[in-house]
């Protein structure tokens, strides 16, 4: 019966050893699996990072293309605006030149008219010999008209004074019987 027990225990031992071995094998395999899993995770991460990088590069390229297109469009718009402004500028310059020409013509005409009128007044009053005060005023008034061709109103006070002087002179001439 001892031999049977021994043989049973042999069987037991073999079974145990087989279990141990199987367990060891399973452990090894699971370690490998873990290692494989880790390396595949690293690979996946690397692949993902690469994909992200590629995407980023593409996005950058696309956006810089867009930026370039935008810049081109903007440049075109600015060019157009510049052209319009230049055109307007030329138009205004032309208008201004015309206006200046017209106003200088007008100025010439009015100046000539004033000059003529002043000369007429001068000629008219040269016939009369008035006392020096009137002559003084006459000189002043003519000078005033020449200097203020644009605003003859500023000479009106002098003109009134002159007319009073002339009337007084006429009066005194009449009184003298001159």
The succession of helices and strands, N to C, reads HHH
List how many beta strands DSSP finds.
Answer: 0
Structural category:
mainly alpha
- Number of DSSP helical runs: 3
Provide structural commentary.
This protein is 91% helix and 0% strand. The model has no long low-confidence stretch (mean pLDDT 82). Helix 1 packs antiparallel against helix 2 and helix 2 runs antiparallel to helix 3. The chain is rod-shaped, with a radius of gyration of 59 Å. It is an all-alpha fold and 178 residues long. It has a domain of 49 residues. It is built from three helices and no strands.
Helix-strand layout with pairing:
Blueprint: H1 2-126, H2 132-147, H3 156-176
Helix pairs in contact: 1-2, 2-3
Keywords:
178 residues, mainly alpha, rod-shaped
Condensed summary:
It is found in: Mitochondrion inner membrane. Keywords: Disulfide bond, Lipoprotein, Membrane, Mitochondrion, Mitochondrion inner membrane, Myristate. The protein has 178 residues and is an all-alpha fold.
